[in-house]
Amino acid sequence: MLILGIDTSCDDTCVSVIEIKNQKSKIKSFDIFSDIISSQVKLHAKYGGVYPFLAKREHQRNLPLVFRQATKRIKPSEIDLIGVTNGPGLEPCLWQGVNFARELAEKLDKPLIPINHIEAHILANWLQIQNIKYKIQDTFPAICLVVSGGHTQLILMRDVGKYKLIGETRDDAAGECFDKVARILGLGYPGGPIIAAYAAMKLKVKSKKLKVCLPRPMIYQKNYDFSFSGLKTAVLYDFRNQPPKLRKSKEYIRAICREVQQAIIDVLIHKTLRAAKNFKTKSVILGGGVAANEKLRKQFESTINSQLLNVKFLVPAKNFCTDNAAMVAATVYFHQKEATKNWKKIKVDANLHI
Ligand code: KG4
Ligand code: ZN
Fold first, then answer.
1. Under CATH, which number does the domain 2-128+319-345 receive?
2. Rounded distance from Cα 43 to ligand 1 centre (Å)
3. pTM above 0.85, yes or no
C-alpha cells in the first residue's frame, strides 16, 4: 500500500510517500520512499518568527515542485491513500495543503484523510518501529509529551486514536520560548538549534564564575501545565542588566543559552515523569521539534532509566521530530477507515484538538 502525506501547517512545505509492507502478516513496517521538505527558514529569519501570509505564498509556489520530487520514483496513480494535515497550525498555510490535497485526490480519484498534526508528531515514533502490532500492545498506556513551536502538551494515550489531554502550556510553547530567547539574544531563527549549539560550546574557566540563574516555572505545581513566557522575560531582564560589553560576549551567550536550555529541560522532564508515575504508564513518548534537542533526549533517557523501572522511552529520529510529511503518511495508515472520496468535506481547523 502506498500512502502520500502532505503537511503545510507552519513554514515547511512537506510531502512524503511511504509504503506499508507485509500487509497480511502481523509484522508490518513503513518503508519511506520519499520525505521532501522545502524549508522557508531563510525567508522568515529576518522577522525572527513565521510570517503567515509569506508562508502561505511560499507553500502555494512550492507544493507542486515538492510533490513532483516526492513522487519521482512512483506513478501518482499507484498511490492508494492521501493524507493532509488539516490542523492545528497557521490557517492560511493549512488551507494551501488542504486545497492541494483535495484537488489531487479528486484528479487521481483516491480517498483522502484529514490528519491532526499533534497526533502525527506522536505517531512519528512508529516510523522507526519495525513491528507495529507488537509495540502497540506493549506500549500503552503511554504518556506523550508533544513539544513544538506552537504546542507543549502532555497527553495520556491509551491506544492509537485514544488520547486525553492532561496538561499544556498556559502561554508560550517550549519551542516558542527557544525562538523568543534567540531573538532577544540576537541569534537568529529558529532559536532551538542555535541555542543548543551555543549551549554545547565549552565555557572558559573564567566564565564559569558567570552565574546565570533562571527560574523553572511551575515545576513543583501539582498539575500538568507549563508556562514559559516568564522564563523568556527572565532572560530579557538578565540580558538587559549585564554591562553592554559582557552581554555581547560569547561567554555570556554560551552561559545563558546553557541555562535556558537546562531550565526548559528540567521542567519538561519533571512534569512528564510525574505524569508517567501517577498514571502508571508503560512508556514515555516524545514528539515535536524540541524533541530533536540532543541534551533533552539524553537527559530524558537517563532519568527514565534511573527512576522508572521497565518504562520504555520512545523518541523519533531527529529528522522526524521537526515537521515532516512522513509522520502524516504514517498517521494515515492508522486512520485508513476514515478515508473519504467526499473530498470537499475536508476543512481546515486551525485550533484542532487531540
Ligand atoms: O514541530 P516543529 O518543527 O514545528 C511546529 O509544529 O511548531 O517545531 C519547531 C520548533 C521551533 O520552535 C524550534 O526552535 C524547535 O522546534 N526546535 C528545537 C530544536 N530543533 C527545533 N528546539 C530545541 N532544540 C533543537 N535542537
Ligand atoms: Zn509540528
1. 3.30.420.40
2. 17
3. yes
